[in-house]
Amino acid sequence: MHLLSVQSQGFLWCLLIAIICAVIVHGVKLAVIGYKSLGKAPPEPPPQKQPEKQPEPVYFLVERKKKKPKSEYSEPKQINFQ
């Protein structure tokens, strides 16, 4: 007696094959990366440099221009639209 239909069995087999193929492909890629890294020596740490003295920053003092406050306002001008 079959518990699954033929289409369901086919789907499960395809899914199983896809998973197996993905595992094999990624396993081969990781094996190639591991094989390439066998011949390389680990990189040596760079020699420590003495910290160079940074030049002191230069600050410029700038004053903002100030508007002259008007003590009196002139009469309003009349605008004519044509």
Question: Would you give an account of this structure?
Answer:
With about 80 residues, this protein is an all-alpha fold. Helix content is about 40%, strand content about 0%. It contains 1 helix and no strands. It has one helix at about 5-40. The longest helix has about 35 residues, at about 5-40. The radius of gyration is 40 Å and the shape is elongated. The termini are far apart. The mean pLDDT is about 85.
Summarize the structure.
This protein is an all-alpha fold.
List the helices and strands and how they pair.
Blueprint: H1 6-38
Structural key phrases:
82 residues; elongated; mainly alpha
- Beta-strand proportion: under 5%
> Major β-sheet, in short?
none
Residue runs with pLDDT of under 50 for 5 or more positions: none
| Category from helices, strands and their pairing | mainly alpha
Termini separation (Å)? Answer: 98 Å
| Dominant shape | elongated
User: How many individual β-strands?
Assistant: 0
The ordered string of helix (H) and strand (E) elements is H
Helix tally equals 1
**Fraction of residues in helices?**
40-55%
Average pLDDT figure: 85
